[in-house]
Amino acid sequence: MNLTPRELELKNKLYSQYKVNKKEFIKDYGAEAEQVMVGRAVKLAKQMAGKEKIKEIIKKTLSSKSVLSEAIDKNEFKEKIKTLVKKALSKEETSPSIDLDSDTKVSLDNARFPVLSKFPSLQDVIVKLLTDQYDLFLKEIEWVSPRPTTFRIVLGNDQVFYLIYTDRTWIGKVEGKKYYLLNIGEEQNCIEAISRILSYGAKADIPEPKAEVPAEEPVTELPPEEPIK
After folding, report:
1. What are 151-207's pLDDT values in tens digits?
2. Where are the alpha helices (DSSP H) in the chain?
3. Same domain, 83 and 13
4. Judgement on whether residues 138 and 65 belong to the same structural domain of the protein
5. What are phi and psi of 137, to 5 degrees?
6. Which of 70, 90, 110 is the last residue before a domain boundary?
7. How many CA atoms lie within 13 A of 55 on its CB side?
8. Is the peptide bond before 148 cis (omega within 30 degrees of 0)?
């Protein structure tokens, strides 16, 4: 398994995050769970490193005067960029296995939130609610329940909301209220609710109140009893 330094870095990061949900891998793959985790981390790391390499090549290509000086339409420009990228990749000692003719997307955010690799539709919902800049507002995405499939979304200010998958629709749960995202009005209300909790400050660590120990009542001394005559 020959990996570049960047691929190895991404692979280790992905693997360490997969370990958080190792019980689920064992549930799905049994004794082969470890092998699946490593294999998936390696495969995704190579794809992500390849995407980064392509982005770098495209950036250099766009700065080329020969490209910018030609007056071509959008489709011709796209094909020219694709040709130049393929040519540049062919010169690399180890070309990333990325199909440039495919519309498949590999999100670089998967390194931060590996659960998105397992649940692609989850990312679509998050983009609807928080735009494609969602990574600026999120701290963590946690898979907290298999049935119904439920995710805890931790915002940058430590506030949380939940996304629940059902056969009919995704459900957003913010501050205890559910929003059925199949309905456009409900989706908009959910967006506004998330925006509201984003405006809150970070959660403060409130110490638990100490149990009050009742003060002992002073003992009243009774006068000595008089002897019975």
Report:
1. 999 998 889 999 999 888 899 999 999 999 988 889 999 999 999 998 887 665 545
2. 5-18, 22-29, 33-62, 65-68, 74-90, 115-118, 120-130, 184-198
3. yes
4. no
5. -110, -10
6. 90
7. 10
8. yes
Cα 188 to the chain's mean position, in Å? 22
Q: Could you tell me the end-to-end alpha-carbon distance of the chain, in angstroms, rounded to an integer?
A: 107
Task: Take residue 95 and report the two structure tokens written for it.
Answer: 């070309």
Whether the full predicted model's pTM is greater than 0.85, yes or no, is: no
**108 in any annotated domain:** no
Q: What is the pLDDT of the chain when averaged over all its residues?
A: 76
Q: How far apart are CA 8 and CA 13, in angstroms?
A: 9
pLDDT at 110 over 50: yes
- The share of the chain scoring above pLDDT 70, in percent, equals 64
- The answer to whether residue 150 is domain-embedded is yes
The residue type of 204 is: A
Specify the number of domains making up the chain: 2
Output the furthest CA–CA distance in the chain (Å, rounded): 129
Judge whether 154 lies within some domain: yes
Residue 180 lies in domain: 119-198
**Residue 38 domain flag:** yes
- The verdict on 81 and 126 lying in the same domain is no
Q: Quote the DSSP letter at residue 70.
A: S
Is the same domain home to 56 and 19? yes
Q: Which residues pair with 179 in a beta bridge?
A: 172
Task: Please count the other Cβ atoms lying within 10 Å of the Cβ belonging to residue 173.
Answer: 18
State pLDDT tens for residues 38-82.
Answer: 888 888 888 888 777 777 776 666 665 555 555 456 666 667 666
Q: How confident is the model at residue 106 (pLDDT cuts 50, 70, 90)?
A: very low
